[in-house]
Queue: 3 jobs
Job 1
Amino acid sequence: MIRSATTLGKDLIGLEPLSREQIEVILDTAEPFKEISERRIKKVPVLRGKTIVNLFFEASTRTRISFEFAEKRLSADTVNIGAVGSSVSKGETLVDTARNLEAMRIDMVVMRHWSAGAASFLAARIPSNVINAGDGAHEHPTQGLLDILTLRDHFGRLEGLKVCIVGDVLHSRVARSNIFGLVTLGAKVAVCGPRTLLPAGIEELGVRVFGRVEEAIEWADALNVLRLQLERMQDGFVPSLREYNRVFGVSRERLEWAPRELLILHPGPMNRGVEIDSDVADGPHSVILRQVTNGVAIRMAVLYLLAGGSPDLAEAAKSGKGVRP
Ligand code: CP
């Protein structure tokens, strides 16, 4: 079937509004892009002539660098801007910043911002494609997609797969994108954590809630372990980090009680010894670094599709064909 190149629309703000087919198009398009990162010369001329601005108002290692690798491997011209060192530090607004970038004739903006809704606010005001690289506690769609791709790679299916998201769900845009994407694709999703770190009404998103990590381990096929976002917390969310680790930490001893071998994911950065112990993070069932590798392919796929690339031509795009002029 020839699917429309405009399947995703202008922007990628979140997974909540996407259909099953739209998510599957991105996952399937990422497949042929994986191989490019394994080549000696990791470059194809797919986005030659496109100018992409990476606008990161919050710290990032994985997302910022993998977007930049994805853009460079597709031959786009890229510019990186942070809050520090730009005129945002002098009080310039987000829209004025973006309008000035538009005046220099850019094609796409990848943005991380501390405020939920910032990406859709920007997308409504500029003609360039906008990709949300994380906005407050709202969504982090490319992280959700790379987590889902990693699960699909391992299990070969998503329908009926039991995935439990463990930890600080309250502050997590990663949790929301995973929930929206996985539920849409037919997976069974649960969350587990202290009540203080679970949003009120989370069940309405179609997830089960476990109050004990032992219950989650007994139920799940995979655990996606979340970082305690200490920078977004005031006192009182957890009694202490040591107490959190004792009650909710994912440790080898706890996993030994699992009725089946659990796949372990973590979006990073990790607080080792808090939400996850090192022997689990570095253990045989961890796919944490595979998530990072898949992140480049997912971001290549999203950039390619939003630039007008046809999913059916992604294989051909490996040699530079398949993107509209
Ligand atoms: N997973 C993730 O978003 O990591 P960074 O904050 O390092 O980009």
Job 2
Amino acid sequence: MNLLYLCFFNLLERSMKRIRLKDKEFELFIPEKEVLAAIERIAGEIKEDMKDKNPLFVGVLNGAFMFIADLMRMLDGSYELTFARYSSYKGTASTGTIQEILPLHPTDVEGRTVVLLEDIVDSGFTMSYVMNKLREQGAAEVKLATMLFKPAALKCDLKPDYIGIKIPNEFIVGYGLDYDEMGRAYRDIYKIVNN
Ligand code: 5GP
Ligand code: MG
């Protein structure tokens, strides 16, 4: 009986916590505390794996800005961090063509262990393009940490090294992620409501 009540209130909370961004409606999907717990777990894994290395962390803007800030604070060490920006999404769909808006300089990555910090892996085209490019530019090792991963949407041979939360193939916003530049500032993650 208690479990039934819990499920009911959980459903009620999620359906009541809705936001509207432009022409689309979104409902609560992953509360901030679940996101932070997942990041804490991967921060532990990264700290352990990097303890004898001198990694270069690359935060992928714009969507990963909250993930980058929370993860780096949890790592709490003398790490080097830089930023890059690529674009492949328009509206709610991936376009497949990657634009390098803020690229990395080859001299930054040569001989380094590079750890990419990404918000979400969908088709995987963006990260496989970037990881191949960094290897071509002479990075010694390229690792990928993603806060969210949609395994059912993956269209290329890509295996993230650190995954926060696996989610179904749905369009989400919040905690850095946007719908047409709106919704990045929400602390929780919301998913689109398909009417
Ligand atoms: P991919 O190249 O893996 O298809 O797409 C990667 C990029 O698309 C992500 O870095 C992210 O910026 C954007 N993206 C993918 N899925 C979603 C989503 O569900 N919501 C939002 N807001 N952006 C997404
Ligand atoms: Mg991104």
Job 3
Amino acid sequence: MGQTNRADQGITNLQEVLDALLHASPLAIIVVDSNGLVRIWNKSAERILGWSEEETTNRPVPVDSQLLLHSEGETDIRVQRKDGVPIDIEIRTAFWREREGHGTVAIFSETGRHRAAEQKLYDVEEELERVATREREARGEVRIERRFRELLEAAPDAIIEVDREGRIVLLNLVTEKLFGYRREELLGQPVELLVPGGVRDAHVRNREGYWNHPATRPMGGNLALEGCRKDGSRFPVEISLSPVRSEEGLRVTAVIRDISERKRAEDQLRAMRENYTRELELRNREVEQANQLKSEFLASMSHELRTPLHTVIGFAELLGEEIEGPLNEKQKRFLGHIHKDSMHLLELINDVLDLSKIEAGRLSIQREVFDVAKSVEEALASIRPGAAAKSITIETEVPVSTPVLADPMRFKQILYNLLSNAVKFTPERGTIRVEAKVRDPFVEICVIDTGIGIPDEQHEAIFDKFYQLGATTKGVREGTGLGLAITKALVEKHGGCIWVNSEPGKGSRFTFTIKIGKPE
Ligand code: ADP
């Protein structure tokens, strides 16, 4: 009996345990019999669906019983709670045999809660990610900030940042070194601390003005800027400004370069250049003086030479006239040599005299208005014998009464020089032609020959003194190489110019201009 009792007791206890489990289960458990009436409705079912055990026991399932009881195996379904709110549940159903039919056991839990938990988890993860990103960004900013610092300190120039009120808010090591202040002494101080006393007020004004046109530009235009050290000493600087928009508002960055070294080098260079120029001027003056002396010497020498030469020529001519007695052929030939070479020497001396006068600036010209045609005829007259000797034809195309304003003697000298060269450098039976054309305010005069011509590269050099190109038509050098130099100087003294067009073998055309003569 006792055994049976114990067994009964045991069974009773097991029932209680099962009941307790049934109601403590976090899973909702519903048992429906073969008549469709609820037999078990545990606490979790009550919690999830809203209906109490009392409301449901021995009654049909109040919710979507079709779905609850006819879903098969393990599945997700949506049902309506007592308050009408739809909820998702994860359900597992099983049948149990009972008298004629079968009942159903449904065990389920709310998936929404998992979802909510999942969502929560997801939210937490997202938040964690956000925090991580923020941290990464912060680390990046720190890196940029560090990089900026490094750059700032590595710069060879002093760099300061100044706020809208002109207070120093940032500076690098070079600034400390350059101005002799410690960082703490500068931070928050007006930037004028670094400006020499005399220009501080102006600096404040200019600083205010900068905000009207905040642009990257050098400071002070062409002004020589100076910085002021803590000990009051000044040094030349070059400053470039640029506006910076920061979170704290508009600021300006000033890059300050100490240009003492450069200034020193520039000053040295300037001093050297000045010295050099002075030296050069001195030398030039010496050369000028020497030149002047040379010209004066030549002028007086030429004069001294001309006098005895005139005597030689005069007496040679007298002898040639045979008034003092007849000469034999040999004597006549000797006399001819003496006369010819004396004349050549006289020409040379005259040229040297002219040139030295020109170079000493002592050549004066007497201008008057006269007719070109007449002057051309006179110049031609003196070369006709030489031209005739070489059967050279002479042509002129000079309009009648073309007045020029010039020194008549010098004008003739110009023409004569060109014409005698033309004769000298034109072979037998050639042609020499003189043309004059009015090109207001000048008269353009050309001496044209069919002579040996001048190569292109010599067209300028022939006007240099003592320049001689080479052999004449006679195959020997004649003349002094001074003719064209004097001619050019004379033309220019008259305010005109001279040039040559020429081609070897074809001939030359020398053209010069001279002022037209206008009646007063
Ligand atoms: P030169 O006393 O030798 O004639 P110029 O100064 O008058 O000195 O001329 C310089 C040189 O220019 C001459 O030696 C000659 O070579 C060249 N030259 C001048 N005129 C002519 C010309 N009409 N035809 C060719 N060559 C010429």
